[in-house]
Amino acid sequence: MYSFFKKKFILPVVASAFLFIGASFKDDFFEIAKQIEIFTTLFKELNRNYVDETNPGELMDKAIKGMLANLDPYTVYFNEQDVVRFKINNTGEYTGIGALLTRKEDKLIVKEAYKNFPADKAGLKAGDEITQIGDVLLSDFKEDASQLFKGAKNTKIDIKYIRQGKMSTTQIVLDEVEIKSVPFFAKIDDKTGYIVLSHFNKKAAFETKEALEQLKKDGAERIILDLRDNPGGLLNEAVNICNLFVPKNEIIVTTKSKIEKHNSTYKTSKDPVDTEIPLIIIVNGRSASASEIVAGALQDLDRAVVVGSRSFGKGLVQRPVDLTYGTQLKVTISRYYTPSGRCIQALDYTRKDTNGKAIKTEEKNYNAFKTRKGRTVYDGGGIQPDVELEEAKSSPITDALIKNDGIFNYVTSYYYKNPDLGNRIPTVTDADFLDFKQYLKVQKFSFDTETELALKNTLAVAKKEKIDESIITEYQQLLTALQKSENALLDKNQKEIKNLILDEIIKRYQYQEGLYQYYIKNNSEIKKSVSILNNNSEYKTILKI
């Protein structure tokens, strides 16, 4: 129970927090003071007079988070417990289990166990459902379950997990896990080097430089840098990676804000490795933030040909601000701009549609900019490749399959039906695709499209209002029509879905390394990149060299 003293005690904290937040987006201090006074009076009277006992901390937490949710998804508030749980580690090294996990209801799902790391050594596989960690049942533990894997090196943790419906146990021995920024590099052919950059931690530039120098030592005369699915990371590492290919004192990115101190220009500061080697950068719709800085800067400087599909468009810059009592605000302070002046950000959170979603700039409203050699490039959010490939774009139906684990769960079933595949690369046949569609049907897979969700919500409201019986026939007709449409979309995007199924199958048997080995021989974006590099005149024509 909270005493009135505690209620009064929290108010100055609230006021100071709101003053800081308010000042970050409005300099009308009278208006800020007025709104704070209204809020503190309301908060005090609410807690004093409400019919049931209230929890002031919980109320305030929801109030702040609700306020920030109206701005953008990157501006967030962390209460004391959030700050303790939210441990961002940019070194690439941490004590852990070496696996990608996601929470689903009362289980932790293993999405990927990294080769030769603790989870892999303990025998965990993708698709395993962890139900207990040590003495803690996840059904009883609603907090961030990752903290249950914390401990010193060599700490032994017993876990229980479900695999294909059967409960099993194993023991994980914690170790130092190094998450590499460059998980793979190799020569594609006698002259072409290939580097995968998966994220931008503190070792990103160092690892990329090592890979580049080794490939050059091995005879590589041109480079493909793969930034697909790279969500970004440290800004300075993006600048340093560009610096491998361009001279000192080149502007790579600027940040612009209404607050002068947040306006910054980031330039290269070191001697480059190679300013002449032909370079191609591959991006897709999941390449974001720092990935877009690298692709955009090297495109604007006419230093690299960008291949693939338009990148994500995450051009908002955040910084953490420590507040009182161990709380923290991560706040958007500025936007990223490439050397030509293009804004990377795709969604405008100051403008919302009728559903409250941020509006994306329409192509007809894109603005033209010029690269150093006069090539025309456009803003509109994200980086538009010099060579766009239709097959590199993802369709809404495949995005739904990925988001809701349709492909992941199907391949889990496939893996246990085909235990002896080993290093062989299978062919995903038409029969396999039919089997996949049947699997989705049997599992009653939900695509959760906006139309599907709206239809389900309509029935839920109808049931609440007790009119569902009068509309059930029409509802079933609409649902059937929607399912037919989704089935048609599956068929229309069969090639893309087959490729994603195959990618997931290869990862299950051969880990990420096996997938990259497959890519350098078979991936269409890589093949196109090699083709451009093999045709020196085409490469120079694109860049106007």
Topology:
Elements: H1 4-25, H2 29-49, H3 56-69, E1 76-78, H4 80-85, E2 93-96, E3 99-104, E4 107-113, H5 118-121, E5 129-133, E6 136-137, E7 156-163, E8 166-173, E9 175-178, E10 184-187, E11 192-196, H6 204-217, E12 222-226, H7 235-243, E13 251-256, E14 264-267, E15 279-283, H8 290-300, E16 305-308, E17 316-322, E18 328-337, E19 347-352, E20 358-360, E21 368-370, E22 376-378, E23 387-388, H9 396-403, H10 406-417, H11 430-442, H12 450-464, H13 468-492, H14 494-522, H15 524-534, H16 536-543
Parallel strand pairs: 11-12, 12-15, 15-16, 16-23
Antiparallel strand pairs: 1-18, 2-9, 3-4, 4-5, 5-6, 5-7, 7-8, 10-11, 13-14, 13-18, 17-18, 19-20, 21-22
Task: Explain the overall architecture.
The chain is an alpha+beta fold. The protein has 4 domains: 4-70; 93-178, Pdz3 Domain (Roll); 184-394, 2-enoyl-CoA Hydratase, Chain A, domain 1 (Alpha-Beta Complex); 396-448 and 493-522, no CATH class. Helices cover 41% and strands 21% of the residues. The protein contains 16 helices and 23 strands. It has helices at residues 4-25, 29-49, 56-69, 80-85, 118-121, 204-217, 235-243, 290-300, 396-403, 406-417, 430-442, 450-464, 468-492, 494-522, 524-534, 536-543, and strands spanning 76-78, 93-96, 99-104, 107-113, 129-133, 136-137, 156-163, 166-173, 175-178, 184-187, 192-196, 222-226, 251-256, 264-267, 279-283, 305-308, 316-322, 328-337, 347-352, 358-360, 368-370, 376-378, 387-388. Strands 3, 4, 5, 6, 7 and 8 form a 6-stranded antiparallel sheet that branches. A 6-stranded mixed sheet has the order 10-11-12-15-16-23, sandwiched between helices. Strands 1, 13, 14, 17 and 18 form a 5-stranded antiparallel sheet that branches. Strand 21 and strand 22 form a beta hairpin. Helix 12 (450-464) runs antiparallel to helix 13 (468-492). It is globular and about 75 Å long. The termini are far apart. The model is unreliable at 1-26 and 87-95 (pLDDT under 50). This is S41 family peptidase. One of its GO terms (cellular component) is outer membrane-bounded periplasmic space. One of its GO terms (molecular function) is endopeptidase activity. Residues 83-152 form the PDZ domain. Keywords: Hydrolase, Protease, Serine protease, Signal.
